[in-house]
Design goal:
386 residues, 12 strands, 12% strand, binds pyridoxal-5'-phosphate
């Protein structure tokens, strides 16, 4: 059976060019980057070249890039260190963040280390910008705003530049989770004005186990992992040299081919929307997902006009790998926080959310396979309700 992969927001296939680059390092450079002899210096040079390259691409200083193992570690380090070391006692965030942000903030709240305010979410999945403006006027507590750049479930884009400005004017720190947008947009962190951001290589056709965090110069974050003092003291542990090299290569490829990829993926997204609307009467889209400019172009969150708790299995049987949001281990679909935030119970009982996420490799044939399968599932529901 032909397999169709439409879950690129979960992870992407590593590019062969990245594998080659990493294999070359694995075979030829094994020194410990902390060693002062030539083997160590060779490994260290690769890390620093990668750092310089990534920093240049983001228009920041190499000293502002710290390599980590993943997006989760980057976000945890930033948020926890802001509270532990930068005197933050108030965090403004939302219920729609990635679990790694939600859970680290919940832990801080549970320990009584900071007051946490979760912004209202509008029906379209956007944050309430006006509420944020009002909240920031109160400067009695050192505040961190943590808002993701693109939502990983419905794709809504946050106006990061606007929020940065707002935070700067109100003496507030701003962290944005850019795991779904680094390498998908040509981001200039300096121009965006954010204090902290994060990246994960496996979301951009790089290796798993490599990522970085951006921290604006002189932000004085401190280590969560202590030891040998690697990553200028922020993240001890012998560096994942080939992972870092792979991350840098994947980032290069993503940005070098960005225009071409964006054009292809936008066409695929538009095609998917059109085909769905033709094939399934009543189909809708969650949040701002159908808007190519106000949402992440590589993701489409579909709202099927019927409830089907087993749709994940049905798609699996047809060879289609797709994400529905979260599912509990019994296999029964569980309503995600995002869906339960933007819909009421009644609305949820009449729909099924599906997250389709594309890459430069997604073809119209992949989409046709999806649409044909969904058409059959929709017809079955129509018959049941007739
Ligand atoms: N933040 C967002 C928005 C994500 O989509 C993900 C991964 O799904 C993460 C953070 C976590 O990244 P990682 O898988 O590298 O830990």
């Amino acid at each position: 059976m032909q397999r169709v992969y439409l879950d690129n927001a979960a992870t992407t296939a590593i590019r062969p060019e990245v594998v080659d680059e990493m294999a070359n390092v694995m075979k030829n450079v094994f020194g410990n980057p902390s060693s002062t002899h030539v083997f160590g210096r060779e490994a260290k040079a690769l890390i620093e070249l990668s750092r310089k390259n990534i920093a240049q691409r983001l228009n920041v200083s190499p000293a502002e890039i710290y390599f980590t193992s993943c997006g989760t570690e980057s976000n945890n380090t930033i948020i926890r260190s802001c509270v532990n070391d930068l005197d933050v006692t108030r965090i403004i965030t939302t219920d729609l963040e990635h679990k790694c942000v939600i859970e680290s903030i919940k832990d801080i709240e549970y320990r009584g280390k900071a007051e946490v305010i979760r912004l209202n979410i509008l029906k379209n999945g956007n944050i309430d910008y006006q509420q944020l403006e009002e909240l920031l006027k109160d400067q009695s507590k050192k505040t961190l705003v943590s808002l993701m750049h693109a939502n990983n479930e419905i794709g809504n884009l946050t106006d990061v530049k606007y929020i940065s400005k707002l935070c700067q004017e109100n003496n507030t720190l701003f962290h944005t989770d850019t795991v779904q947008t680094v390498g998908h947009y040509d981001l200039d962190f300096q121009d965006l004005g954010v204090d902290f951001a994060s990246c994960s290589a496996h979301k951009i056709h790089g290796p798993k186990g490599a990522g970085f965090l951006y921290a604006k110069k002189a932000s004085h974050l401190k280590a969560l992992i202590s030891g040998g003092g690697q990553e200028r003291g922020l993240r001890s542990g012998t560096e994942n040299v080939y992972g870092i090299v792979g991350l840098s290569k994947a980032f290069d490829l993503a940005l070098d081919e960005l225009d071409e990829h964006v054009q292809h993926i936008k066409e695929i997204k538009q095609y998917t929307i059109q085909q769905l609307q033709d094939a399934i009467p009543g189909v809708g889209f969650n949040g701002l997902s159908a808007d190519l400019y106000k949402s992440l172009y590589a993701l489409l969150s579909i709202k099927l006009p019927f409830h089907d708790a087993l749709i994940g299995f049905e798609l699996e049987l047809a060879g289609i790998a797709i994400s529905q949001g979260s599912a509990c281990s019994s296999g029964a679909a569980k309503v995600s926080t995002v869906m339960s935030t933007i819909y009421n119970e009644d609305e949820i009982s009449q729909m099924t959310p599906l997250r389709v996420s594309f890459s430069y490799e997604t073809s119209k044939e992949d989409i046709d396979t999806l649409i044909n399968t969904l058409k059959k599932i929709a017809a079955k529901h129509q018959l049941q309700n007739a």
